Each structure stands twice: as C-alpha cells, then as structure tokens.
Amino acid sequence: MTDTTGTTDTTDPATGRLEVAALTKSFGAQEVLRGVTLGVEPGSTTAIVGPSGSGKTTLLRLIAGFERPDSGTVRLSGEPVAGDGAWVPAHHRNVGYVAQDGALFPHLTVGQNIAFGLVGGAVGGGRRAKARVDELLEMVSLDRALASRRPHEVSGGQQQRVALARALAREPQLMLLDESFSALDAGLRVATRRTVAAVLGAAGITTVLVTHDQAEALSFADQVAVMRGGTLAQVDSPLEVYTRPVDRATAEFLGDAVMLEAWVDGDRATCSLGTVPLAPTTHRGRVQLMLRPEQIRVDPEGPIRGVVVDTDYFGPESTVRLELTSGREPGCETSALAREGEIISIRHSNAFIAAPGTELRLRIEGEAIAFPPAG
Ligand SMILES: Nc1ncnc2c1ncn2[C@@H]1O[C@H](COP(=O)(O)OP(=O)(O)OP(=O)(O)O)[C@@H](O)[C@H]1O
Asked: Fewer Cβ neighbours under 10 Å: the N or C end of the chain?
C-alpha cells in the first residue's frame, strides 16, 4: 500500500484501519451527524445501514474527505486525516469511492476509465498501463475484450465492476461503497455484490458500504453499523444486530419482528405464547418481547395453537398470520397476559399448510429479546 507521502508500508498492523470518533456535522440549522464513533479493522467490511436521511452518505463523505466535520476526528491507518487540526484532502487519502451509478466517464472507453484511476491517470495508454488495466479487469471478473467498449455498451452490473476496477487502480487502503449495488436489479445485485466482496476480501482492503437495504448489510459485512437520526444505534456482527437488537426500532428496521406484551421473571418471559426463554436482560416486570417470525416454528407436538387467518406468499416462504387460540398443552404455563385472539405472524416454507382456517401447532425456537414496555 502507498501512503500519502508516497512510501509503502504493508507491515504496519494499522494499515487500512479506520477510526471515526465523536464526529458531528450540521448543514445550516440541521444537525445531520450527532457524535458518530466507529472503528473498522484492517481488511474487514462494515456496512452502514439506516433509513433514508439518517446521515449515512454524509458520514461516508466525511470519511472520504469530500466534506469537513464540525468536530470529531477521522483517522486512517493510525494517522489523523480530519479533525484535531488535521486536514488531508480527498485525493491524498488513499481512499477508493464507488458511487451508486458508478459515475463512469461516458466519453472514455472501459479501459480508459480504469486507466484514469492509475496513479498519474494514464489515459493515453502505454504497455504497462494496459497490462495493469487487463489485470484489474480480470480481478473484477470482466473479459478483457470489454476494455474497448464505452460504458453504455456494457450492463449495469459490469459498469459497477468497472467503477470498482477504477477505484482499485489506486491501490486504496480503504474502499467506500455508496449504495453501489442499489441501482441493479435483484439477481445482478447479488452476483455483483459477491464478486465485489470477493475481490476486496482477496485484496485485504478495508471496506465501508452504505446501504438502506438491511439484507444487503447483513450478507455483505463483518460488522453492521445501524444509523438512526445522525447517531449509530448499534454496531456489531450481522448475527448480533439481527438476533440481539438494542431496541425496537433497530429490531424492526433489520427485519420482521413479532412484538408481544410480556412479564419478565428471571430468565423467562410470560406472554400470549406461554413461557418463553429470554436472552440475558436487565429488564424486569412488564416488557415488550421481540421474536423473529422464523423463531415460531410449526410443530405437530408444539404447545401453542393458532388458526391461520391469511398468508402472504412470496416464493420460497410465506408469511402466515395466525390467530392464537386457547388449549395449550397441560404442563405449559398459561400466561396471565394471554390474549386469546391475538394475531401473530410466522414464516413457513410450505405454502400448502397455510389455508385460512387451518389449525397449526407451534413452538418457539431460541430466545426472545426484552425491550422496555411501549409508551
Ligand atoms: N450538502 C448538503 N447540504 C444540505 N443538507 C444536506 C447536504 N447533504 C445532506 N444533507 C441533509 O442531511 C440529511 C442526511 O442526508 P444523508 O444523505 O447523509 O442521509 P442518508 O442516510 O444517506 O439518506 P439516503 O439513504 O436517502 O441517501 C438529509 O436531510 C439531507 O437533506
């Protein structure tokens, strides 16, 4: 890797580490970032996910050096690049940036676009530049023959891979992907995302992806940072943020959630589904309980009964809405909060079991999460 002074040091364990501390940014009276702290380990991938307007792109632009923070610091490979009196402009940060539409130059060929990324912007060519362009095309799984085409003569997924190759040409320490897959249709999005993840992983480049798509964040990243209202609500592994969200808004943003009134006593919660194992919590007494729909399993021996109200079929799975009925099995504690007639949603892979009126028996798998009671 080459740093801003032109020297190379790939042995420094800090190379590629990103540290963002207490970052704030306002536009006029609007406070867009309100103290963001985030660490990204060298060679790892972090997805910043959150609703529209939560400040994701602003954070990425501050990391890239397209904007200056009001306060707080950005450090790259252990060196401050913004804040604390430091300011390293974007083109000296050794950071790659891939925008949503790829932002390729339409008047240049694919090869020239990539060569533009080479240090010195070797648009004119030269044998070494051509060899490097071929190497970069290969890295992103594109045929060399595409080098002579214009961007509009290749597909959307190929354009994104060209944009990645152009960004890789500078051998960045950090790659920033700003909604880089959002404009692609579903199949192409998954394939392109896989290629990009594999290329960046193999090159050991630290990567930050901004997306509003929670499934993309969970599948792409080692670490997911959930942004809401200009702060990070939770930063953790994909599994942890999905199965152990810190609050209800995070739970609901990351996927479907079944929310139930419950009463916590020790490591168990009592609710309309009976007594449910609980993830470790400090909450006691009345709570809101969160289960993912896939934790409620259809099981002929299951202690919970419900009647199918309706289903939402979407191919491999259906969301099935059930009305809970009484008649839990003996030995299964009945909840003081049990509300016969309560509607819950579950997921099921067999759409044929789910005709309205069918009675199903259910059991809970895994642990529920407790949040403070609503209101
Ligand atoms: N240069 C700017 N000038 C004024 N306001 C801005 C500027 N950039 C962003 N904003 C405002 O800051 C807020 C956050 O914008 P930002 O683009 O960071 O959010 P986002 O989470 O990336 O949203 P989206 O997913 O819709 O892109 C928005 O209200 C936006 O209008």
From this structure: C
